[in-house]
């Protein structure tokens, strides 16, 4: 893997990395989250995949790897970001569709629990019938939070619709800004209050 950047972890990421290591192998990492979106109508799987890749190229920290090999843990941002993408067609009358979807989703969720070897942001488009799909985005909370999800979805569907997106601010800028905040502040906003 070619490396574009190596960044320190934010305080929140440090805590999430600790919890991920504590949960390793248990199959119970509560910070592995999924968004399951039902889609109806014609979906161009290739255009959706390309739109997802466009978003990941704008925000390569979504597919960062996390390493504890150094004095402090770091996030390694790849120079050639890619997101694991799968297309699964289960449009088959002889198959229990819900069971198949559950199996695919469980495999995707398990895959994001390894924070070091592969991206912890993944996508799968599941075709249920001719014009019915489930689009499942899976990520570890260490790379994306609830505030970021609407931005990601807006950019994803705008890109799918052919809109050109403006340049994104580098993630390094946020990490640098956060590192400059008052260290006593545990809320991450630099308020100077040591209340947590």
What's the layout of helices and strands?
Elements lengths: L2 E6 L2 H13 L8 E9 L4 H14 L6 E3 L6 E5 L6 E5 L7 H15 L9 E9 L2 E9 L7 H13 L10 H9 L17
Parallel strand pairs: 5-6
Antiparallel strand pairs: 1-4, 2-7, 3-4, 6-7
Helix pairs in contact: 2-4
List descriptors:
single chain; 196 residues; alpha+beta; Chloramphenicol Acetyltransferase; four-stranded mixed sheet; three-stranded antiparallel sheet; 33% helix; 23% strand
Textual characterization of the structure:
The structure is a single chain. With 196 residues, the protein is α+β, with helices and mostly antiparallel strands. The protein has one domain: Chloramphenicol Acetyltransferase, CATH 3.30.559.10. Helices cover 33% and strands 23% of the residues. The protein is built from five helices and seven strands. The chain has helices at 11-23, 45-58, 97-111, 148-160, 171-179, and strands at residues 3-8, 32-40, 65-67, 74-78, 85-89, 121-129, 132-140. The chain has a four-stranded mixed β-sheet with strand order 2-7-6-5, sandwiched between helices. A three-stranded antiparallel β-sheet has the order 1-4-3, with no helix packed on it.
């Amino acid at each position: 893997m070619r490396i574009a950047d190596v960044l320190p972890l934010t305080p929140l990421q440090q805590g999430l990395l600790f919890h991920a290591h504590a949960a390793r192998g248990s199959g119970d990492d509560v910070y592995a989250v999924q968004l399951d979106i039902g889609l109806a109508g014609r979906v161009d799987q290739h255009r959706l995949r390309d739109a997802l890749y466009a978003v990941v190229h704008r925000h390569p920290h979504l597919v960062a790897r996390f390493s504890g090999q150094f004095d402090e843990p770091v996030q390694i941002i790849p120079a050639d970001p890619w997101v694991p993408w799968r297309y699964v067609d289960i449009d088959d009358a002889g198959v229990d569709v819900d069971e198949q979807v559950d199996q695919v989703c469980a495999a995707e969720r398990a895959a994001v629990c390894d924070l070091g070897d592969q991206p912890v942001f993944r996508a799968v488009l599941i075709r249920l019938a001719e014009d019915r799909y489930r689009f499942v985005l899976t990520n570890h909370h260490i790379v994306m939070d609830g505030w970021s999800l609407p931005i990601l979805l807006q950019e994803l569907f705008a890109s799918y619709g052919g809109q050109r997106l403006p340049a994104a601010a580098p993630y390094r800028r946020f990490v640098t800004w956060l590192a400059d905040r008052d260290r006593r502040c545990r809320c991450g906003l630099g308020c100077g209050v040591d209340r947590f």
